[in-house]
Amino acid sequence: MVSGHRSIGDTEKAVQAKLGDTPIRHEQMAAVANIYRAAAAVRQHFENSVLRSAELTWTSFVVLWVVWIWGEMETRRVAEEAGISKGTLTGVARTLQARGLMERTGHPADGRLALLSLTPEGERLMARVFPEFNAEEAFVTEGLSNDESLDLADLLRRIVVQVETRGEERRLELLDGEDPRPRRSGRRAKEPRG
Amino acid sequence: MVSGHRSIGDTEKAVQAKLGDTPIRHEQMAAVANIYRAAAAVRQHFENSVLRSAELTWTSFVVLWVVWIWGEMETRRVAEEAGISKGTLTGVARTLQARGLMERTGHPADGRLALLSLTPEGERLMARVFPEFNAEEAFVTEGLSNDESLDLADLLRRIVVQVETRGEERRLELLDGEDPRPRRSGRRAKEPRG
DNA sequence: CCTACGTTGTTTGAGGTCAAATAAAATGGA
DNA sequence: TCCATTTTATTTGACCTCAAACAACGTAGG
Fold first, then answer.
1. What would the pLDDT profile of A33-48 be if each residue is shown by its tens digit?
2. How many residue pairs from chains A and B have C-beta atoms closer than 8 A?
3. Residue of chain A whose alpha carbon sits nearest to that of B68
């Protein structure tokens, strides 16, 4: 396929044509656009190489990885570390259990909590797959020096910190007192009888 | 919420504990991990601020954006520019049409092609939403200087180029002659009668 | 013509995605 | 002991996701 993307220059010109007078923050636009494009490209490469041979999706791999590294863990923390919602984790954990890679046990002291851990088969899989995964991490960043990879990680981390520390505040500010629109999708309230 | 993530240092230690002797490329691991984390954080912020008020998902916004900037376009090119598969585009375009934001016409000369364009309502929506979107791009990169944003865009672009130019070759190499496993999900062949 | 073959958009199926609603359990007062 | 509140995981519903199969159309060679 090798990229049919428009060049950044072309895009900039087209945006200016569309928005003539309105001022645009170009550097920031380029940064955000490329974060998403890179994440998608990388994810796709992994899903079609290492992960395909292990029959894992990116998300199921991440969940497995978190539990593999940290050991038995409460589900809320797994979701947090994996960067997915707890609702998503419920489903992902279910498919991993069905494949015999993960186990779910109730918390002995607190009945609300659930604990996840890997089965021996899950452990074996991760011991095999993780080195291959890391080799692909090296592949996709092949064009960067070690220092550049660290710079990249640092710049991205600063964005994550910004969103996580100031994001909520910002979102409230933008609403300016108004009620947030409900999400288009999602569960509806049980309509009151009467 | 403000991040319950483990520090990178903690993670590194846990990984070493798990893989003692196996050598790991740490810088590359950090870079890839942060690309994905940043992409997810940014996407979520956008979906819960600008996009929520316009009732758009990230993907539907990107599709709208592409057609807005470039004008009437063949669907294959829209999918390409938006970075989604043509199958996904079919669905997204359908919901955008249903909302009256987009139109679909057949190609006058080639019956296989379909063209997408914005309705006047779609145009109005984008003219309103895009400046707000760009303001959030500025917000999430607030911790970076203009030059750092450009550096970031450049580093990410080099990863995209690497994956797009060498990815396929690499995936074939990894298979080493073997047939790729079919994806776990996806359409099954109609089973032959007999 | 016709018949491969190539190219395009759509369908399919398994699965991931979120926020909000909900259920189940714990906690802390009165 | 209740009962309201808080905290947790699950369910729900609309949507996105991909690759592979497929159908519809175009094209080039006989």
1. 999 999 999 999 999 9
2. 268
3. A18
User: Do the bridges between strand B102-106 and strand A114-118 make them parallel or antiparallel, or are there none, so unpaired?
Assistant: unpaired
**pLDDT of the residue at B1:** 34
**Contact assignment for A156 to B161 by CB distance below 8 Å:** no
Q: For the whole prediction, is pTM greater than 0.70?
A: yes
Closest Cβ–Cβ partner in A38, A141, A162 for B140 = A162
What size, in residues, is chain B? 194
Q: What is the 8-class DSSP label of residue A188?
A: P
Phi then psi for residue A114, to 5 deg, are: -125, 145
In this predicted model, which residue has the larger pLDDT, B14 or A28? A28
Smallest CA–CA distance from A127 into chain B, residue: B19
Average pLDDT over residues B170-176: 89
**Has residue B191 got a pLDDT over 80?**
no
Tell me how close the Cα of A194 comes to any Cα of chain B, in angstroms.
Answer: 31
Place of tokens 């996580």: A164
Q: Which residue of A has its CA nearest to B185?
A: A55
Q: Is the CB of A87 under 7 A from strand D?
A: yes
Sequence-ordered list of residues with C-beta below 8 angstroms from that of A73, at least 6 positions apart, any chain = A66, A67, A81, A115, A116, A117
Distances (CA, A) of A171 to A165, A178, A179, B130: 12, 11, 11, 17
3-state secondary structure chain B: CCCCCCCHHHHHHHHHHHHCCCCCCHHHHHHHHHHHHHHHHHHHHHHCCHHHHHCCCHHHHHHHHHHHHHCCEEHHHHHHHHCCCHHHHHHHHHHHHHCCCEEEEECCCCCCCEEEEECHHHHHHHHHHHHHHHHHHHHHCCCCCHHHHHHHHHHHHHHHHHHHHHHHHHHHHHHCCCCCCCCCCCCCCCCCCC
Please name the residue that has the structure tokens 């991760």: A126
Element (H, E) at A118: strand A114-118
* CA distance between the termini of chain B: 59
Side-chain half-sphere CA neighbours of B103 within 13 A: 12
Bases along strand C below 7 A from a protein CB: 6-22, 24-27
Query: For residue B179, is pLDDT > 70?
Result: yes
